[in-house]
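Chain A, query sequence.
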Amino acid sequence: MGGDAMCAVCSQKGPLTCSACKMVSYCSKEHQKHHWPEHKTQCRPFEVRTSPELGRYLVATRDVAAGEVLYEEAPTVVGPKVVEPSPVCLGCLRPPGAARCESCGWPVCSPVCPGLRDPHCHAIECKILSLSPIKDIKDCRYECILPLRSLLMQKRNPRKWKVIMSMETHIDKRGPSTEVYKELDENVVSYLINNYLSKLDDGAIGDISPEIIHRICGAIDVNALEIQEDQVELLALLPTAFIMCHSCIPNTKHTFKNTRITVRAAVDIPKGQDITTMYTHMLWTTQARREHLRNTKYFSCQCPRCADPMELGTHMSALRCLAEVEGMPCGGFQYPKEPLDDNCEWCCNKCPMSLSSRDVCQLISCLDVEVESVQLNQPTVDRLEDLLRKLETVLHPHHYLCYKIKHSLIQLYGHQQGYLHSDITDRALLRKTDMCRDLMSVTSKVDPGHGRLGLYSAVLHYELHSALLEQYRRDNNVKHLQEAKYALEEEIKFLPSIESDHSPEYQMRELAKRALVDVNKMMLGASVVNGK
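Chain A, predicted structure.
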């Protein structure tokens, strides 16, 4: 704010500025406190804009520093996933126990769970679910709970209902002829109407037509964010988060605690830049990410990563060229000629060899199945090394399938029987540290703010530290201790401290903190031995 800024309360000279949004000035702390009830709803470093291409989206109204909180909010509605939902207690959304709700028969954590009687949790929906009590827990249709809770907002909370109805649904692309419509119509819409809603008095909860339920399902599919808390997977519709547009290199990261979301800047966000999130998996290839977004969010991503054949220098989609030049391997790699054209040719960067996008898709699909099969069947170091050698004959070493295998290998080297850190050769130990550093470099390019791959990166940092400690034990080179310390400090820095105590991120952070204490002791001991 300039030196002539005026107090928002009394219009006198205002030397004080709101520390959060930097957009409002005050003459004193007293006037700042007085104005807070009015200002708090607008105290955010962004504004909502609208465009024909993006619809509503968020834009930073000032420079936002990495790690700064953009906003916090409670969900408009939260419940089990709609696709492959996890069993949960409908009172507290935690894993259910052996108890059952005495009214509707659904599994709960305990007969005295506070949420069972809470009108803001299970009590209202229980009156409806009790119209057809569950006899066998196998009959629980958890995928119906979130749509039902959304439907109940019509009269329970009209403001939240208005938010849900303002969400994009792409209902024009989800018509009766589509598979998604047929699946939801059978598993959610018809089930809710036939078993529960048809037994209600007219207008008891508002509009209960198939059309409105399909619209709610569309809002959930397109806008909901996934929450993982206490070993259950939930979905939440949030009043601000759904407005953020997508990017495969998002500039925000979010955490959940007690279903409440906190959104932070993952990297520095300059004034005027879109505030973005991600609705697909960061480690997938460009083809896979764009296909997923078309099928679930109904748009074709054109972000800088998708538009770059080499994916920001990571080569996570690249294939090894199999052509020969004068009897020798070409040595080049193949990339999509026009990445935003799903049917473009893939061309080698060293020779005229090319492949169709269809051939590429078939190849990656086959290899993906093989990788999944190996990883799901208690893989060993030897089995993964054999598979990696096979993959690297046809894929770039940084291809996402190679990344997956290397990430698994890093966790087996040093921990699998016969490959403990104390047992493996110097060469194997060096291979592990090299793989850790290599994957850390790739990860930092696609996720510089650790917004989506924080847990992946944490494993890399921790395993690098473990291997470096073994190297130090073998050669007493204090540089290994220094690098191990740095790896742990970086891991602690980027892992969120506000996650639930049960989350893997929190547990990895605590593990790194304990390990750092040990490394510091070792460094102190090394200093004493060396007379420093």
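The radius of gyration is 27 Å. Residues 504-529 form the longest helix (26 residues).
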